[in-house]
């Protein structure tokens, strides 16, 4: 079980030396309890204390980096069972599946899709993470050719799935230095799979339907020198997956069974209810999810779901403050001031684009709060506007000195004028009316 901050504090030297970077040992203890600090930062802990604290303060689910380079991604390092308790940290990688029995053009097409396809939602580019290659042919040579085709098309994280180590060894010749995932170690072959994983620096999936067997197998693989593991609980139904993945997360984060403290692997492509498995995997603790290529509609739905689950529920989704252009505004174009709450931003942006009036959106940092909430809480203030104008050089972008502020910020209009020296026009409360307002009121 994880130690609480006061329990950790009792083990610390209580010198308040600040050498760890924190002002007091209690502050350091609180960070250790939250998994936000490393015990090695304290120079006065003996080996025994480091061993005790290290076992209880390191992330209960191992952090793994999958792939190399720009498209690599991180999974694991989770601390909670419920998202509202804290937040989920590292979103699952969704890997599209190809078979080595497909033509080279078909395989290259899927790889190119994963490489190039992205869509933007609330300012973030959403995309798939990599490719899974299945050795359906049972031939090491055919498998190796399929892997070579993917490698020649794109530098993407890979999952290699084969029943024999011979096939995996042939494939790893083409990608062994890029940290692919290999599937899967079982009770009968784990030593051979561990040797292959160590030789090529791979991440290894261990597979067993019984959680006791899965924990023992993971422990045995770790003893063989392979630390970067994923757990495949081999679910036979949606209920199996929910029960097993939830049990793995519970036993890991409570440190009841530390040998289950690894990210979970889910093959959603094997099942007729693929979309349901994919959605459940995103919601219920899978870290690497294998699926067949999705339709455009299913793609947007699954990637949007993943984005929603892996954002902090206690923190509004925010846009970066700054100057945004709608169309190609000239220096005499209107400037519309608003907050960095994402829903406000995209709603206003949509209506401005519909109005077909080139303009500037000037976004200030209200910590993701809406206009009305920011005004009421004091997060939207005349000094914030003044400082933002100076920080982003707004006066260099336009030839006039007029701001249009949201209708709900009308009480601040006079103070903004006095503090900034800019003229203030009060816009409508409803963003839907902004086009009509600009057509009738904006004249420079």
In short:
The chain has helices at residues 5-11, 25-33, 47-57, 104-116, 140-153, 165-175, 190-200, 211-223, 238-253, 274-283, 296-309, 342-355, 371-377, 382-392, 394-397, 413-420, 434-441, and strands at 64-66, 73-75, 93-99, 119-121, 124-126, 130-134, 158-161, 181-185, 203-207, 229-232, 264-267, 286-291, 322-326, 335-339, 359-364, 402-405, 423-426. It has 444 residues and is an alpha/beta fold.
| The first-level CATH class name of the largest domain | Alpha Beta
**Count of the domains:** 3
CA(first)-CA(last) distance:
67 Å
**Strand arrangement across the biggest beta sheet:** 10-9-8-7-6-3-12-11
Tell me the structural class: alpha/beta
CATH topology of the largest domain: TIM Barrel
Mean pLDDT: 92
> What is the percentage of strand-forming residues?
15-25%
Amount of helix = 40-55%
Oligomeric state of the chains in view: single chain
Instruction: Please give the radius of gyration in angstroms.
Output: 27 Å
Number of helices: 17
* Approximate shape: globular
pLDDT < 50 stretches: none
Number of strands: 17
Assigned CATH architecture of the largest domain: Alpha-Beta Barrel
CATH superfamily of the largest domain: Dihydropteroate synthase-like
Main beta-sheet strand count, sense and barrel state: 8 strands, parallel
Describe the structure.
The chain has 444 residues and is of the alpha/beta class. The protein has 3 domains: 5-57, Electron transport complex subunit B, putative Fe-S cluster (3-methyladenine DNA Glycosylase II, Chain A, domain 3), CATH 1.10.15; 64-309, TIM Barrel; 322-441, Rossmann fold (3-Layer(aba) Sandwich). 41% of the residues lie in helices and 17% in strands. The chain has helices at 5-11, 25-33, 47-57, 104-116, 140-153, 165-175, 190-200, 211-223, 238-253, 274-283, 296-309, 342-355, 371-377, 382-392, 394-397, 413-420, 434-441; strands at residues 64-66, 73-75, 93-99, 119-121, 124-126, 130-134, 158-161, 181-185, 203-207, 229-232, 264-267, 286-291, 322-326, 335-339, 359-364, 402-405, 423-426. It has an 8-stranded parallel beta sheet, covered by helices on one side. Strand 9 (203-207), helix 8 and strand 10 form a beta-alpha-beta unit.
């Amino acid at each position: 079980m994880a130690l609480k901050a006061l329990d950790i504090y009792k083990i610390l030297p209580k010198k308040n030396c600040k050498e760890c970077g924190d002002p007091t040992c209690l502050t350091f203890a609180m960070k250790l309890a939250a998994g936000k600090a490393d015990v090695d930062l304290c120079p006065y802990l003996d080996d025994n204390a480091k061993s005790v604290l290290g076992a209880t303060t390191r992330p209960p689910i191992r952090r793994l980096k999958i792939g190399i380079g720009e498209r690599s991604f991180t999974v694991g390092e989770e601390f909670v069972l419920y998202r509202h308790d804290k937040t989920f940290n590292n979103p699952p990688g969704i890997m599209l599946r190809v078979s080595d029995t497909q033509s080279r053009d078909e395989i290259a097409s899927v790889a190119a899709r994963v490489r190039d396809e992205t869509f933007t939602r609330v300012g973030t580019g959403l995309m798939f993470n990599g490719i899974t290659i299945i050795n359906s042919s049972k031939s090491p040579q055919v498998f190796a050719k399929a892997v070579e085709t993917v490698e020649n098309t794109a530098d993407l994280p890979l999952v290699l799935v084969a029943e024999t180590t011979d096939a995996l060894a042939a494939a790893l010749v083409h990608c062994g230095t890029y940290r692919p995932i290999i599937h899967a170690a079982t009770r009968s072959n784990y030593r051979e799979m561990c040797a292959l994983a160590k030789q090529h620096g791979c991440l290894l999936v261990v597979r067993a339907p019984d959680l006791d067997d899965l924990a023992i197998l993971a422990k045995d693989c770790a003893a063989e020198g392979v630390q970067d593991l994923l757990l495949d609980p081999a679910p036979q139904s949606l209920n199996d997956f929910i029960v097993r993945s939830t049990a793995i997360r519970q036993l890991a984060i409570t440190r009841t069974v530390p040998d289950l403290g690894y990210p979970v692997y889910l093959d959603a492509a094997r099942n007729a209810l693929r979309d349901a498995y994919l959605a459940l995997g995103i919601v219920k603790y899978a870290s690497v999810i294998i699926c067949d290529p999705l339709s455009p509609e299913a793609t947007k739905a699954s990637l949007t779901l993943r984005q929603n689950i892996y954002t902090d529920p206690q923190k509004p989704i925010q846009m970066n403050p700054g100057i945004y252009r709608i169309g190609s505004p000239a220096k005499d174009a209107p400037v519309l001031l608003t907050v960095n709450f994402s829903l406000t931003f995209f709603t206003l942006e949509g209506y401005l684009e519909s109005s077909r009036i080139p303009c500037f959106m000037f976004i200030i940092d209200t910590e993701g709060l809406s206009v009305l909430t920011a005004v009421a809480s004091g997060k939207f203030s005349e000094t914030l506007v003044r400082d933002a104008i100076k920080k982003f050089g707004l006066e260099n972008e336009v030839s006039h000195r007029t701001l249009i502020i949201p209708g709900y910020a009308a009480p601040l209009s006079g103070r903004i004028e006095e503090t900034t020296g800019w003229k203030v026009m009060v816009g409508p409360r409803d963003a839907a009316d902004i086009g009509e307002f600009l057509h009738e009121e904006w004249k420079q």
